[in-house]
Design brief:
8-stranded mixed beta sheet; 2 helices; 24% helix
Amino acid sequence: MADLIDAAIEAALLDAVDAFAVAQAITYVGKPNVQFRLPEKPTPQTKALRATILPAPTVRRQIADDGEFYYSGLLQIDCFFGQGAGLNMTRLAAAVIAWFPPGKMLQLPELAPQLQIVEKAYRSGVFDDLPWSFVPVRVPYQLYA
């Protein structure tokens, strides 16, 4: 059952990332176990996302003798822009944070429990990976099942 729930958690989180990408008109979206190649010569307007589930698999702890478990982890979304994007990169990171507000519930495919965003998402500083720059955003989540 744990493998099924891990797969459902990943699917729910990545579906939410896909919905965000559509809403922001982002065509380059990297996901676990899917080949992801950024353009070699981006412009400052070129943007992309790369989603990673941390840790993989999600942390699982038994909380009751009746078989109920607590699952927790982080969804990391790296927000990429071509060098020279300026504030556009931090605006995209802010939009990711707004997309995953505390208390947001995500339905797990084919399962009854819902995944909950438990705390405000947060970002770190800007990193350069020439010719790209990116800002990582982390989204804490939990599930009782």
